[in-house]
Write a structure and sequence with these properties.
By secondary structure, this protein is of the alpha+beta class. 53% of the residues lie in helices and 7% in strands. It has two domains: 5-254 and 397-438, 2-methylcitrate dehydratase PrpD; 259-381, 60s Ribosomal Protein L30, Chain: A (2-Layer Sandwich), CATH 3.30.1330. It is built from 20 helices and seven strands. Strands 3, 4, 5, 6 and 7 form a five-stranded mixed sheet that branches. The protein has a two-stranded antiparallel ribbon with strand order 1-2. The longest helix has 25 residues, at 120-144. The mean pLDDT is 94.
Length: 442
């Protein structure tokens, strides 16, 4: 079959031993963030439904469901953990993929790593491969397909790449795994889910399961199509594999909502740093933003997913509470304080901001007060982008903010230390022991 030789060689030969210190730090930051997001996603309805489904449909195995007692086959565990990883919409992303590589790559690699009891070094290498291939697959997919498609489509390819490394696949068998994953991936009508938010979200759990399954099928001899990396649109995307690490380009989300709403939150935050903003004195809020952001819901949310894929709710929640975290999108859906502020918000599509997207997600906000004063922000970028990053302390704070309520302070600290020293561990199961030290599931 037609193959991309540079890609195949990369998957066969990559090792974290070759990484510079900065890239290894970026990889561990990505791992810490996605683990924290997965743990915090445990309390969502989507996680519970997915767990019950997976337990009933997939057989028992050696792969853990994070903070659940059940162990399933690799495909089942990947499906459940991927649901949790993306459940709060707090997981990492990459600007040019318009999606979330970590939530689809990490659960796939983790499930198969446990099944095969590989070392921490091998796990980190597989995770790196999944990120690097997955991000490039996302870029290639958007170049070759006319509509906007979800992470589960291209993310499945990244998941299959990481799993292929763990399974020791070679040559054309890797090509088959990637081709299978692309074909089986969740090629979904993403904008329809944004207009009508649901637990389907970004197709991440199905794409993750598809990536795991694709690699196992390839190992058994199941042939696939030539992957998207063999297509004209992908020319040049794999030549820098092992040289230019795109894991360094990830963004990290400070707020539990769609990335497209976050520039407006930053605009509010910028106004609040310069002015005393009393919410009851606000007369009107006007958000100037790009088309995709303006397409988010403006209605009162009835579910966590409707709160996440919303423009007005997270802005109003931030004005009300100074944060948009799990508590706001799970417990404050009918909060009258938030809903009253939503009633005062309107949106304007700005062509200048359209032209900057997707390289940058930008918004500007004007606030008109009842006393006639007007506050206007600068044009603000979503905080956490690789060129507008969270500080190391902010990343650490997010990790403990998400994990401590589930694990406790000391176990969360030990988990953080485990992640930082993972490459020295003989078995990936040491990571799972750290996560499950305080498994509260019955």
């Amino acid at each position: 079959m037609k193959a991309n030789n540079s890609l195949i060689t990369y998957i066969e030969s990559e090792s974290i031993k070759c990484l510079d210190g900065g890239t290894l730090t970026s990889l561990k930051e990505a791992l810490a963030d996605i683990i924290a997001c997965t743990i915090a996603g445990r309390n969502t309805n989507a996680a519970e439904i997915s767990k019950e489904f997976a337990v009933s449909q997939w057989g028992t195995g050696n792969s853990s469901l994070i903070l659940y007692r059940e162990r399933l086959t690799t495909a089942g565990a990947a499906f459940v953990n991927a649901t949790m990883a993306n459940a709060l919409d707090l997981d990492d992303g990459h600007r040019f993929t318009k999606g979330h590589p970590g939530a689809v790559v990490f659960p796939a690699v983790l499930a198969v790593a446990e099944e095969n009891n590989i070392s921490g070094e091998e796990f980190l290498t597989a995770l790196l491969i999944g990120y690097e291939v997955g991000i490039r697959a996302g870029i290639a997919a958007h170049l070759s397909r006319p509509d906007y498609h979800c992470t589960g489509s291209w993310g499945a390819v990244g998941a299959a790449a990481g799993v292929s490394y763990i399974l020791g696949l070679k040559g054309n068998t890797i090509g088959n795994a990637l081709g299978n994953a692309e074909y089986f991936g969740a090629y979904s009508p993403m904008m329809r889910c944004i207009e009508h938010p649901s637990m389907l979200k970004d197709g991440i759990n199905w794409g993750c399961m598809a990536g795991v399954s694709a690699a196992h099928l390839a190992k058994a001899g199941y042939t696939g199509i030539p992957s998207l990396f063999t297509q004209k649109e992908a020319e040049g995307l794999t030549h820098d594999l092992g040289k230019n690490y795109r894991v360094n380009e990830l963004y990290y989300k400070p707020y539990a909502c769609c990335r497209w709403a976050q520039p407006a939150i930053e605009a509010i935050r910028e106004i609040q740093t310069k002015n005393i903003l009393i919410s009851t004195n606000i007369n009107k809020i006007v958000i100037h933003t790009f088309t995709e952001s303006a397409a988010l819901s403006k209605d009162y949310p009835e579910t966590t997913e409707e709160a996440q894929y919303n423009l007005f709710f997270p802005v109003a929640a931030f004005i009300s509470y100074g944060e948009v975290g799990p508590k706001q999108i799970i417990d404050h859906l009918d909060d009258p304080k938030i809903l009253s502020i939503m009633d005062k918000i309107s949106v304007v599509i700005d062509q200048q901001l359209n032209e900057a997207f997707p390289e940058k997600a930008l918004s500007m906000v004007k606030i008109l007060m009842q006393d006639g004063c007007t506050y206007q922000s600068e044009i603000m970028q979503a905080r956490g982008d690789y060129n507008y990053p969270l500080t190391a302390e902010e990343k650490k704070d997010k990790f403990f903010r998400l994990t401590t309520p589930f694990l406790g302070k000391e176990p969360a600290q030990r988990l953080s230390e485990t992640i930082q020293n993972l490459e020295y561990m003989k078995s990936i199961r040491e990571l799972m022991i750290a996560i499950e030290e305080k498994n509260m599931s019955t």
